[in-house]
């Protein structure tokens, strides 16, 4: 039999790091954060645009100079309101059309809003209509870049349509004057600025997705490795309890009652062919324990009589339930073989959120600490199984006092998942919760950083493209002009200092933030009180729409109420400046209301949107990413377990499976010496496989000793000699070196001498078997498994009844193989 367990380093070509990079790079399409950011921006864009269209449209009607034109204006604006309503409805309930048709209809309705708004300008007439149209179209082209973010061509086409609608309104309002080119360029710049801000936020969301994917890939590789290790342990424990025990007993003699052997061999085959690690749901442990087999498994041994005291039902996850059942079965087998009694007591009872199972006998007892590590009955089948599912098993025994084995499992100590992960994944729920929290924090940090960068970009471009033009063109209306210039320079300093802190350290220090907020509010007051009230929020007021973006940039990481408070202070300063010169008229109030909605309302909505992104979208993205990762992890575990099982079973089919099939169907007789020899060889190979998972300084020597112990159980005297300084030998090479020794020891009847010679360039393992059975050891070898890193050569020599076998491995000049 070849070694059945695949080494963890061979999970994927390229190793662990390559697996992580491959997973992170192979994900197609946007991640959870990017998808949710786009979806949230689209919904907020539709709601914001609809609010602006309705509110500014109503205020524009109020500000109209000629009330007789109101019905005609409403005939244009009401359809625009309805078009916004249709888009809002489509967000909640998809239209009963094909997706492509729905997109074309929504795009047409959005374009109709722009055209109808532009046509209302000449109908209403006056300054109020001009402000209303500029406000609605400007906000629409901004929000369109978010509504149609995943289709930038559609957003750009709507921006061009808005520019054309604004120009059409100007032409129809004043046929003798051509449209202001600066206003048209302003609309296109706003669209480009909005698109750029979206790209900045999306880039940070994508960076968060990449970072989360890399972290998730690392966790997934760890979970898959843990699952494979747990399944490997269960596989080795099952192999120990079934085929290894059966073949070892057959190899030890023929003066037995072999009536139990065919059924046992068939059961062993069934156990080896079953795929481990896929048990689902929960089981009643009480029912399982009532079905524990009690023998007989050996010569002249009667069944062990179990006195059971079970307080049931005991419903627990299937992974721990089956681990306890298999452990109890192995412990009962040990009572049958070693205790010297035919009675044992089995008790089970609930304990809090778990169970306790205890098996005790009044047999000869033993010292548990004296059992060699290579004996797997207790360490692997009993204790190892429970550790793999988050439980514990203890063995209490002393010579002459009997033995007590206790299994304990509690829900809080178990892995969180049901199904195959309940048995295989050694990842506690708290670790997954911490990972989820870390992902949410990562998404929040990246989205906040992106929002601050977008706000800074808006501040800089707005100030040095729009505000600079305004302050330069209206120097004569400022009283005094130097105050406005100083305010402009002060805002530029805030952007420079805050932007430097953001780009260098990722956050703005509290002292810098406090100084900057004071400077921004000072700028708001200076600009409000050095400009005549009738010009506030007009073309000469360069700071009214800019201050809010600076406040948002500085307070992006604060609750929205803090931002709203500072924004309210900015509006309050301008309102005080207006009311100090007298109460404005209704038309003037409507125009200022439009300006407040267009600027401060937009900024407040962005603040609310940012709060939603940080406190709703980020957790939702974390949950969605966690669900996606859990599905990927489950699929990987399932695929790797199935592949590992196929490799293991394929390794068994060459030698172990034919033996068990022959014994199970009566084709092979345990009375035949050749059959017993073959069984001894297979038992030795299995013991070597069990020793392969031991954490020891010299794995080669440890595995040789495991093979020697099997021969010693059969009455062979084995001596082991070691020469030279041990060094690392790849696991595949160890298999090739030891297998000829196992074959020779299995055929030896009296004495054998095993020698290991280490040199700087080679490792040589030799065995001399005296009184070998018919010299068959010279012709039997294990089938070749996976290729080794070097060439293992085997030389066999037979002289009379003695056999000498030497296996030699020459170390390669450079080896990158995994060594264990």
Describe, in plain words, how this protein is organized in 3D:
- With 820 residues, the chain is an alpha+beta fold.
- Among the domains are: 15-217 and 434-630, no CATH class; 673-810, Heat Shock Protein 90.
- 63% of the residues lie in helices and 11% in strands.
- It is built from 22 helices and twelve strands.
- The protein has helices spanning 15-26, 32-62, 70-92, 99-124, 126-147, 152-173, 181-251, 261-273, 285-289, 318-339, 376-388, 420-424, 429-473, 481-505, 510-529, 544-554, 560-579, 586-653, 656-664, 673-691, 699-713, 731-747, and strands at 282-284, 305-310, 315-317, 343-351, 354-361, 392-397, 403-410, 717-723, 748-758, 762-772, 792-799, 802-810.
- The protein has a five-stranded mixed beta sheet with strand order 2-4-5-7-6. The chain has a five-stranded mixed beta sheet with strand order 8-9-10-12-11, covered by helices on one side.
- The longest helix has 71 residues, at 181-251.
- The chain is elongated and about 120 Å long.
Please describe the topology of this protein.
Elements: H1 15-26, H2 32-62, H3 70-92, H4 99-124, H5 126-147, H6 152-173, H7 181-251, H8 261-273, E1 282-284, H9 285-289, E2 305-310, E3 315-317, H10 318-339, E4 343-351, E5 354-361, H11 376-388, E6 392-397, E7 403-410, H12 420-424, H13 429-473, H14 481-505, H15 510-529, H16 544-554, H17 560-579, H18 586-653, H19 656-664, H20 673-691, H21 699-713, E8 717-723, H22 731-747, E9 748-758, E10 762-772, E11 792-799, E12 802-810
Parallel strand pairs: 2-4, 8-9
Antiparallel strand pairs: 1-3, 4-5, 5-7, 6-7, 9-10, 10-12, 11-12
